[in-house]
């Protein structure tokens, strides 16, 4: 049996003031997904993370490549390699945390099953 975990981190609305005349509102969302076991299907990874700016993918990371990759040309051009290195480290940490949570969830389910069986 596979368990699928998803965690969405929605940041507060980000406002930038341009030319002190008007404010433009943007949204920044991070989506993290993890499977409890490796899935042997092409394109499906045990862990995936992506950043969305105004619902447009701006970066991507998965457990196979293990590198944060820019998905917009302006990000490739404007951001330094250090930004991507730090982002890769951050995603690797989140991947590790998701697998710890997954293991804790599996232990929780096992304990609940044992409790239910004892009551029967």
TrEMBL record:
The chain crosses the membrane at residues 16-35, 99-116. InterPro entries: MHC_class-I_related, MHC_I-like_Ag-recog, MHC_I-like_Ag-recog_sf, MHC_I/II-like_Ag-recog. Gene3D superfamilies: MHC class I-like antigen recognition-like. Keywords: Glycoprotein, Membrane, Transmembrane, Transmembrane helix. Residues 25-97 form the MHC class I-like antigen recognition-like domain. Pfam families: MHC_I. This is MHC class I-like antigen recognition-like domain-containing protein. It comes from Oryzias latipes.
